[in-house]
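Support request, please re-run this one:
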Amino acid sequence: MGAWGEDAEGNAALVGLGRSRRILLSDTLLAEYSDDEIEVILAHELAHHVHHDLWKAIGLEAVIAVAAAWAADFLRRAVGPVFGFAGPQDLAAMPLHLLGAGVVSVLAIPVANAFSRRNERSAIPSR
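Re-run finished. Output below.
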């Protein structure tokens, strides 16, 4: 069944920046998990806060975004004159921008996934 059906799983997340930082717990988690299990889940989310995982993820995504923008501009500069594009403001160059940025974004997926897995493993609470 889907996420809203009987088989819905409990979820938790650390969200927000600064004073708006919160740990969100799904109603399914609160209803179907024991107090000890919820305590471990809260400890895991607090570990993300202590390790500054959100800021690290924002930094990684910023690097990927800059690399994607650079690739888009590089591709437009390299191939754009062949098609007679006037410059970055030329709307006809949009497919080149999307192709350049898309290639970098797709190539970055394994890096972002490995980074996320590392953060999840480091946030496993120990007793």
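Confidence is low (pLDDT under 50) at residues 1-5. The beta strands are 12-15, 22-25.
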